[in-house]
Amino acid sequence: MIKTIQNNALFSSLSETQLRSLIEEARCLKLGQDETLFIQGDCAEHFYWLASGMIKLYRVAPSGDEKVIEIIQPGQTFAEAIMFMDQQQAGFPVSAQMIAKGEVWRFNNRQFLGLLGQSVDSCFRMMANMSQRLHQHIKEIDRLTLQTAGERVINYLLQALDQQIGNRSELKLNISKQMLAAQLSIKPETLSRTLSRLNREGLISTHGSHIKVIDTEALRQQVEI
């Protein structure tokens, strides 16, 4: 457990003794698909590390529409930034729900802050981790405000390919198309039409959740114009 969790930037600068004390007080939660971890507004006294499965962080608009903020993959931490704010009692700004069953480790904010107080290096690593997440969210805002629906879909495909190890021309969607549409802030039918258009143009081929990119350069040209 210690070796695994040390791969995360948030924990990597903590000593083995510090990590052991943190894990001893932590709780491992085994959750099923669609099970809720916390709801927007719940008291934010903990942060989390995902050991297995997948989690979506989302907000619900007054209209009832759901906006997927982020898909959390194994090895990632989440809900840690709020521990530095005076709003922990105000609650989580998002809700968290499992989209694939797995294990989540829950850590106490107050205990972790105490450990950070013992290590300047840990503080800097925490700042680097949050800065990276902030940069990702800024890019997300740019994508939602400056790109068309089609450009969002193409950029998602290109980024997913870039992040893959091994086969760089074929990918498997690990979330439903409906959830992907919510993450891209488009309607499911718009996503389907865009994928169908790219199919007709010979740029991709789709088989269920598998997408093969046939002409990467042509896709890049569509979003660079």
TrEMBL record:
<protein>
    <submittedName>
        <fullName>Nitric oxide -responding transcriptional regulator Dnr (Crp/Fnr family)</fullName>
    </submittedName>
</protein>
<feature type="domain" description="Cyclic nucleotide-binding">
    <location>
        <begin position="10"/>
        <end position="133"/>
    </location>
</feature>
<keyword id="KW-0238">DNA-binding</keyword>
<dbReference type="InterPro" id="IPR012318">
    <property type="entry name" value="HTH_CRP"/>
</dbReference>
<dbReference type="InterPro" id="IPR036388">
    <property type="entry name" value="WH-like_DNA-bd_sf"/>
</dbReference>
<dbReference type="GO" id="GO:0005829">
    <property type="term" value="C:cytosol"/>
</dbReference>
<dbReference type="InterPro" id="IPR050397">
    <property type="entry name" value="Env_Response_Regulators"/>
</dbReference>
<dbReference type="InterPro" id="IPR000595">
    <property type="entry name" value="cNMP-bd_dom"/>
</dbReference>
<keyword id="KW-0805">Transcription regulation</keyword>
<dbReference type="InterPro" id="IPR036390">
    <property type="entry name" value="WH_DNA-bd_sf"/>
</dbReference>
<dbReference type="InterPro" id="IPR014710">
    <property type="entry name" value="RmlC-like_jellyroll"/>
</dbReference>
<dbReference type="GO" id="GO:0003677">
    <property type="term" value="F:DNA binding"/>
</dbReference>
<dbReference type="GO" id="GO:0003700">
    <property type="term" value="F:DNA-binding transcription factor activity"/>
</dbReference>
<feature type="domain" description="HTH crp-type">
    <location>
        <begin position="147"/>
        <end position="217"/>
    </location>
</feature>
<dbReference type="Pfam" id="PF13545">
    <property type="entry name" value="HTH_Crp_2"/>
</dbReference>
<dbReference type="Pfam" id="PF00027">
    <property type="entry name" value="cNMP_binding"/>
</dbReference>
<dbReference type="InterPro" id="IPR018490">
    <property type="entry name" value="cNMP-bd_dom_sf"/>
</dbReference>
<keyword id="KW-0804">Transcription</keyword>
